[in-house]
Write a structure and sequence with these properties.
Length: 107
């Protein structure tokens, strides 16, 4: 059985989020990418407090695919320094986890 992660990134538009989602699923780097938003983000960037409307991509995949997923997100992303973080999935429905393996080519 593989180890699994949920990778989170945010984008500046629904279209950018959709492009990331479709690319990752089409390339079998993710079993599922959920896009939600808009959300309101407040952060410091280059010494200034910024506020922005963003969309969140929640990517369900295998831990061993993280480097490739990160690379694709960076290649597709419009931000200079995009948020790309992985959270471990410590437990889950065994059938769902098996589906992640199947869809991402880890049979």
């Amino acid at each position: 059985m593989s180890e699994y992660v949920q990778i989170i990134t945010t984008t500046d538009s629904r279209a950018a989020a959709a492009k990331i989602a479709v690319t990752l699923v089409k390339e079998k780097l993710a079993a599922c990418v959920q896009v939600s938003g808009p959300i309101s983000s407040t952060y410091e960037w280059k010494g200034k407090i910024e506020q922005a409307e963003e969309w969140v991509c929640a990517v369900k995949t295998r831990k061993d695919l993280y480097p490739r997923v990160e690379g694709r997100i960076k290649a597709l992303h419009t931000y200079e320094t995009p948020e790309i973080i992985a959270l471990p999935i410590t437990a889950g429905n065994p059938a769902y986890l098996a589906w992640i393996d199947e869809v991402t080519g880890n049979k």
